[in-house]
Structure prediction request, 509 residues.
Amino acid sequence: MEEAQAAGNEAGGTVHRPVSLPPPKSYDGTPASWPKWRQRFQRYRNGSALAAKPKQQQVSVFLYTMGETADDILLTMNIDEADDATTYETLLTAFNTHFDTQKNIIVERAKFNKRVQKAEEGVEAFIQDLHKLAEDCSFGTLKEELIRDRIVVGVLNDSLSNDLQSQAKLTLVEAIRLSRQAEACKESQPLIRPGENTTAVNEVKRHGHQKHPYGERSQQHQRKNPNMGNNNNCGYCRDRCPARNTTCTKCLKKGHYQAVFRSGTPAPNRWRGAVQELSEEESDDENDFLGHIYHLEDQDYLSAQILVDNKPHIFKLDSGASVSVIGESWAETHKMHESKKQLRGPGNTKLTVLGTVQAQMQHKDKIITETLYVLKGQSSSLLSRTACTKLGLILRVDNVSGPEKPDFKGEFPTLFLGLGNLRVPHSIVLNPDINPTSIYAPRKIPHPLVPKVKKEIDRMLAEGVISPVIEPTSWCSGIVVVPKPNGSIRICVDLTQLNTAVKREVHPS
Prediction:
């Protein structure tokens, strides 16, 4: 070998040594992993010069590398690996056909169409997975267009999705390029403009909390007085302080607004869900809060039809609202009065009140008089917590118990009187080929149950349930005494042998 290499070097040539590659791991047998394993083996076949080896050796190496799964699958195919006509290509085609028949295109396409970018997933991983899912969908020439559409619909970045939609002639290559570029810009944003994201987060946090109704007044106070805020002096003297008679809703002390509250431990919170009631000391205006202002799409178990002045109207049951609200269209047909209250919705936002209407409301047999607030731009109607309770639409249940036992005897007394009889006589036909069976010794009954058995037999004789037999009979079966929980007994008959001789009747369905 050294002599050959030296001769090659002297001749100015290069001697290529054969590359030794480790074979891929054994195939796990799942159809989903077959394309990857096949591609990896193909690379191994080309890199290790296996393709230049005899075809029988290629077949053996292929099946050996694939593992025991290849032997199990090969049993289902009409292929003999020892046959000279069997080549690597014919084996590969057979295995491709085997795994393709196990794929359900409808399911694979459903997976593809439901794929969206996950919260912690990069856009590159999302695009790669779309390509993998598309391999099993048989999209044909539409493959690239469908992957492009899925990228536009499935990316988390709304701005990126809008930019992609605005491209008149968007291709898959362009969609991937723009997606990668958008993610790269997002990752480099803290480096280029480090203060912008922090400001945005703080802004979201500030507006995410409930604001006190006096927040705007406090901000006006602060704009007039630059010293107000972190400084101890707000710029006003005590005699002229606008907050001297106001009670803070955090610490319940007078003399300042909640916006300038500095203590670390607040008093017990007076908020109840999304509804806040304010006393007259806290505000010059009367305020009520609505915790849920949304459009009512469908009438469901959270809504009810109420008669308002004898006209049916759909209300949404809102236990978080302290007043009842009706839509703006109501103002066109009813006379309104001026509202003295200021309504606020989620996030402590002010709501525009057009006026109020006094209306009579009825649900089933309950009638109340309610003040309805007409809101601007409000298409749906809300029923307050108090009105829902008065009309019997909601009820506070402190104790949950199971359903009571139904009293069938009390509900259907005639069905439990006397002996039940068939209206039409019925005959049981026996198979004449079966020999009758008869017991010759009566079964023993426990001595304490003998009086109860005699009493029960006498009762059944009196009611006509049974009749005495005083002549020889071909069939005779023993009785079975079953004690009841109430202390009485039930007499049953062991008809096991007789049932074998009964001809079964056919009931067409």
User: Anything to note?
Assistant: Strands lie at 286-289, 303-308, 311-317, 324-326, 341-344, 353-363, 366-375, 382-383, 479-483, 489-493. The domain at 105-192 is CATH 1.10.1200 (Non-ribosomal Peptide Synthetase Peptidyl Carrier Protein; Chain A). Residues 172-192 form the longest helix (21 residues). Residues 6-12, 197-232, 264-285, 292-299 have pLDDT under 50 and may be disordered.
